[in-house]
Amino acid sequence: MNGYQLDWWAVLSGQPREWLFSGIWMTFRLTVFSSLLATVIAVILLAMRLTTSRLLQGIAASYITVFRNTPLAVQFLFWYFGVIPLLPELWRDWLNETHIYAGFTFPSMELIAGIWGLGLFSAAFIAEELRAGVRAVSAGQFEAARSQGLSAWQTLRYVILPQALANSWQPLIGQYLNLMKNSTLAMSIAVAELCYQVNQIESYNLHAIEAFAVGSLIYLLLGLFLSSSLDAFGRVIFKHKRSHSHG
Amino acid sequence: MDELFNWAVIADNLTYLLVGKAAEGQPGGLLLTIIISLESVLVALILGSVLALISWFSPQWLQRLITIVTDLIRGIPLLLLIFWFYFLLPMLLGNGAPDTLSVVAALGIFSAVTVMHIILSGLNALPRGQNEAARSSGFSALQTLRWVLLPQVLPMMLPSLVNLFVALIKDTSLAFIVSVPELTLLTNQVNNRTMVYPMELFLLAGFLYFLLCSSLTTFAHRLDKRRLANLSR
Q: How far is A66 from chain B (nearest CA, A)?
C-alpha cells in the first residue's frame, strides 16, 4: 500500500468519466432488455409446466435444469463463439454493421449476444420463482376459472399469473437484482458494460482503488434504484392480490 | 465442418481440460475448478459460522452493523469483488500472492454471507421457548447453542448448504476473467488454438459443469425429502 496516492479526479474526469457514463448506459440497456426477454421466456416456461402435456412439461423442466446447472460465463462463450458463427452470413453481416433508427443505435452483435445469453439464463431462475408463486395459489382456482368458461391461457393470464406475481414479488426482485449484477459477466464476450469500463480505467491510469470504489458505488446505487422502484411498483399493482390460501 | 459433431477435438483435449498440467505439478481444468470450489466452501463455512456466532450473541447495534456490511458485500457484483481482491491482495501481500488466492478469498467471503444467513434463519426458525427452557435449566448461552439448538438446525441447513456449493462451483468460472487456468479458461484457450470447433468444446465444458452441479442438486433434493419425511413421521 505504500506510496499509493488516492486521486478521485483521475477517475471522475476526462476520458475515464466518459467511459463510466457509457458503461452505465450499456449496463442499463443490457439489464432492461435481458429482463424483458427473461420475463417473456419465464412466462412461457411457466405456461408449459401448467399444461397437461407431458412433453411440454418435460421440455420446460429440462430447460430449467440445464440453464440452472451450468455457469453463465460458459453460456455466454457458447452463444458467442459456438452459435453466432453458425448464423447465415447475411445475418452476421447485418449485425456487424451499425444501424440507427430514430436516433437510437441498434444493439451491436456483442450486446445482442449478451442480452440473449443473460435473458435465457435468468429466465430459468425467474420461472422457478413464478412456479413457487403458483404453488401458493389454491388448486380450486384453476378449476373454478376453467369451469367459468375461461380458456387455459385466459386462466393463466387473468387468474393465476397476477396472484403468482404478487406472491413471489419479493424473491422476483432478488432475481432481477441478480440479473443486473450478472450482466458484468458479459464483459467476457466484449460487451463494454460498466465492469468492463472500470477495468479499462484501471489499465489506463492504474487508479485501481478509485476505479473499483466508484464502480462498486454505482452498482450499489443501481441495485438500490432497481429494488426500490420494483418494490414501489409491486405495492401499487398488487394491493389486494396476495393469496391467503397458503399459510 | 464435415460432420455434425467433431469427437476428435474432444478426445485430443479431454485430459488437458480435465486436469490441466497436473503432471507438471500445475493442476488446471476441471480439477482446479473442484479445488477452488472446495477451498472457497471451506473459507465460507468457517467465516460464515463465525459471523453467525458473533451476530447471534451480539447486541442489536452490532447485529445491524454486520447486516449493513454483509448487504454491501452482496450488493456489488461478484466479478467486481474478484477484481477488488485481484488488485488489492498483491498490494497487501506483495507480488507473490497467486491469482487463485484472490479468487478463493472473493468467493469465500461472498458465500460466507450466505452461510451466515442460512445458519441464522435456521436458528430463528426454532421455537423461542427452546432457548429459554435450556437457559433456565442451567445451560450457558454457548452450551444451549451447542447441545440444544445447533443439533436441530444442522440437518435443516444441509440442503441449503449443498445448493450454496453448487452456486459456488458455477461461480468459479468467473476466475477465467482473471486468468486462473480452471475449466472455463482452458476451454477458451483450446478454442482459441483450434478455432474450428467452438460448439463442441463449450458444450463439453457445459456438460462437465452440469454433471457436477446436477448430481449435487439431486443429492440436496433427496436430503430435503428425507428430512421432510422424518418430520411428518
A: 7
